[in-house]
Write a structure and sequence with these properties.
The protein has about 500 residues and is mainly beta. The chain contains 5 helices and 36 strands.
């Protein structure tokens, strides 16, 4: 029978012999495991027992990790770790180890780990001995309380918040075959290692082993909680097969409607419902691009070509309650996520996938970097990037931004018209501004620039005639001489 052992840092291990369980660990350990895994076909992930899988949502919600069992919860470190039980939608079992002084120990499950609806569920979870994910806690809002601020749960999904935010969009370790006819493949983090921070550290490191039918990977997350929360990601990938459709640093979000651009199909008292409202890109040539999101009637895939871009992200720009009028979801407090590549990503494109949706519980927006030639079997690939979970794009904060996009019809005509508001242009001479406009099909009829004293900025009106087109790409750039005066505005107009 295993005995309970409590180490000097307050963690409980259920094991027969601690010496036989601990082992030397570094990130190279994860890289070696990923490389070895890639040399043979993927083995199916271990699954939770059917009794746990068959639970309904209300029952699963009653399973909560015991607060007094939190890893490092009663120690000087500011961080603590809590765990998720397997069950309901979270069927895959995950191993979680902790690392102290260069040695790793497995975290085991006891009958006291979780508060559950009944003893049968407690015994089943204890017998399984593994988890469905983890969450990190840190006092990001006040010094007296450890708030949950990062979650790793389900496939390779993770999400984070900064001070004053609530959960919204998610990130993933990797995306494979998104929006492809053969169906998407979902890699999973099958094992985690969490390094114990010292009492003075304000960052924590999590390692993860990714496994999938087509690829394996070793991940290192350097996590800095606060205002804003930042995550340094380093991934080493080992493809099992040639991969044409691969997504690096994927972001997943939800967009239902924003009445200024996308009127809902059914009555809704809320003027906007979304976790993110736009894709923003900073290209390798320092062009800032803003692309409003859409909830289309049919699947839409857009590609923005570049060579090692300087950043991209899904942004929630409007931060006032009045913008959403939702007391429960509080979309005004949802984070934006910005990805800044650290090493050379080469040639490729940022891909935006917009999926038709009729429910705000569905994530229907995906954005990621896709290398031009994909990934080749038996080659090693390394990608490094910094993720920032801020209220807005954390770059070029002092220059004009696209603060509102809207569409309608030109007065006294049936011609479509778009309206774009830019801020931080109060001192600019309107006569020095010019519009560079483009439409892929049809023609531009009129383009007007006006001062907008209400936001100390500029408002642009562009009227166009799509002629017989059912879809047209718009590109609008506000210039001062030969220099861009504001982000380039892109939009895919679709005939309703």
């Amino acid at each position: 029978m295993a005995s309970l052992l409590i180490n000097t840092f307050g963690m409980v291990y259920a094991q027969q012999d601690m010496d036989s369980k601990d082992y030397i660990f570094s990130h190279q350990t994860v890289i070696d495991l990923a490389k070895d895994l890639s040399l043979s076909p993927m083995l199916p992930a271990e699954k939770a027992p059917k009794t746990l899988i068959n639970m309904d949502y209300s029952t699963y919600r009653q399973i909560n990790y015991q607060q007094n069992q939190a890893v490092w919860g009663n120690t000087p470190t500011k961080f603590s770790v809590q765990l998720f039980a397997p069950g309901f939608l979270f069927q895959d079992l995950v191993s979680i180890d902790v690392v102290e002084n260069g040695r790793a120990f497995p975290l085991s499950v006891s009958s006291n780990s979780f508060i559950t609806p009944n003893e049968e569920i407690s015994e089943l979870i204890s017998k399984v001995g593994k988890y469905a994910g983890l969450r990190l806690h840190y006092p990001i809002n006040n010094a007296e309380r450890n708030d949950e601020f990062v979650v790793f749960q389900g496939a390779s999904y993770f999400r984070a918040v900064s001070k004053g935010q609530s959960y919204g969009l998610s990130a993933r370790g990797l995306a494979v075959d998104v929006a492809q006819p053969k169906g998407e493949e979902f890699p999973m983090f099958k094992q985690f290692w969490i390094e114990r921070p010292s009492s003075s550290q304000e960052a924590i490191v999590v390692h993860a082993l990714l496994d999938s039918k087509s690829i394996t990977g070793a991940y290192r997350f350097g996590i800095y909680p606060g205002k804003p929360t930042r995550i340094e990601v380093k991934t080493t990938l080992f493809p099992r097969v040639d991969l044409k459709h691969i997504g690096i640093a994927p972001l997943t979000s939800m967009f239902m409607h924003n009445r200024a651009l996308d009127v809902p199909d059914f009555p809704d008292y809320r003027p906007a419902v979304h976790d993110s409202e736009g894709l923003q890109i900073l290209t390798s040539k320092d062009e800032m691009i803003w692309r409003p999101l859409n909830n289309p009637k049919t699947l839409q895939v857009s590609a923005f070509s570049d060579i090692s871009p300087k950043g991209f992200g899904l942004i929630q720009r409007h931060r006032n309650f009045e913008d959403y009028q939702d007391l429960e979801a509080r979309y005004d407090t949802r984070p934006s996520a910005w990805v800044k590549p650290v090493n050379d990503w080469g040639e490729g494109h940022i891909e935006l996938v917009e999926i038709p949706s009729d429910a705000e519980t569905n994530d229907n927006i995906v954005a990621f970097w896709q290398p031009k030639d994909g990934l080749k079997k038996d080659q090693l690939y390394t990608y490094q990037y910094l993720m920032t979970w801020s209220n807005d794009t954390p770059v070029s904060m002092d220059v004009p931004r696209t603060v509102r996009s809207a569409k309608g019809a030109k007065i006294f005509t049936d011609l479509p018209e778009v309206v774009i508001d830019y801020n931080k242009m109060a001192d600019i001479d309107i006569d020095e501004l010019a519009l560079d406009t483009y439409i892929s099909k049809g023609k531009i009829v009129e383009a007007i620039v006006l001062k907008n004293p209400n936001n100390r900025g500029v408002r642009v009106f562009v009227t166009f005639d799509p002629e017989e087109a059912k879809l047209a790409e718009l590109r609008i750039q506000l210039k001062q001489g030969e220099v861009a005066a504001a982000p380039t505005w892109l939009y895919r107009w679709i005939k309703e």
